[in-house]
Amino acid sequence: MTRLIQGVLDFQRRIFGKKRDLFVELGKGQKPLALFITCSDSRIIPDLLAQTQPGELFVLRNAGNIVPPHGAGSGAEAATIEYALTVLRVRDVILCGHSRCGAMHGLLEPEELAKLPSVAGWLEYSKEVLPQVPEAGLTADQRLTMAIEKNVLVQLEHLKTHPAVKAALETRALRLHGWVYHFEKGQVDVYDPLSGRFMPLQEQVRPRMVQEAAKDEGPRTEWETHL
């Protein structure tokens, strides 16, 4: 706890004052750019990855970046999704899995969940992944990577069953994105529906955007400064 308390005090002393106007403005409401659904894994920090400021991402996190189908689960995920689309009017939803995912490892190796009944029950919402991952012909790492990617696609399909999502898609007011973040490489792979596979983000965006990002030498962000 000492490390966390020191962090809060440091934030109050050195960072909040520089961004006081931003936080005052956020007190009037929020208008996030996207709903970002990802894993609870401590190695994943959405705002660090996307270099976003407070108020720019509406984040939903749980073990395995899982979205139970409409009518299933505790309702917490459904409530977050409904609020994001109906009240905040977000127009993009990013469902982001990640490398070395412990939840997907548990799905592939259920014997390791013997003492984790709640986790095992939660992973039932990813069971559609299992028939899509062959047991032979792949290394353990390859099977895990495949499961991580397939889980993103399974959860996107679950997402489409939610009424707010379904309605927004029907009116072309919403875009869904499937990502896998490889934190050990700093790489994001994006699902390409035309090829049916995940491809590096830089291959999916306009070349001009990649060039501008590469030559950007503007002021360092708070993330870059304090990490």
Account of the protein in words:
The protein is of the alpha/beta class. It has a single domain, classed as 3-Layer(aba) Sandwich (Beta-carbonic Anhydrase, Chain A), CATH 3.40.1050.10. 41% of the residues lie in helices and 16% in strands. The chain has ten helices and six strands. The chain has a six-stranded mixed β-sheet, covered by helices on one side.
Sum this structure up briefly.
The protein has 227 residues and is an alpha/beta fold.
Topology:
Elements: H1 2-15, H2 20-26, E1 34-39, H3 46-50, E2 57-62, H4 76-86, E3 92-98, H5 102-108, H6 117-122, H7 140-159, H8 163-170, E4 175-182, E5 187-192, E6 197-200, H9 207-215, H10 222-226
Parallel strand pairs: 1-2, 1-3, 3-4
Antiparallel strand pairs: 4-5, 5-6
Helix pairs in contact: 4-8
Overall number of domains: 1
H/E series: HHEHEHEHHHHEEEHH
Strand content: 15-25%
Question: What would CATH call the class?
Answer: Alpha Beta
Structure keywords:
Beta-carbonic Anhydrase, Chain A; 16% strand; 227 residues; disordered C terminus; globular; 6 strands; alpha/beta; 6-stranded mixed beta sheet
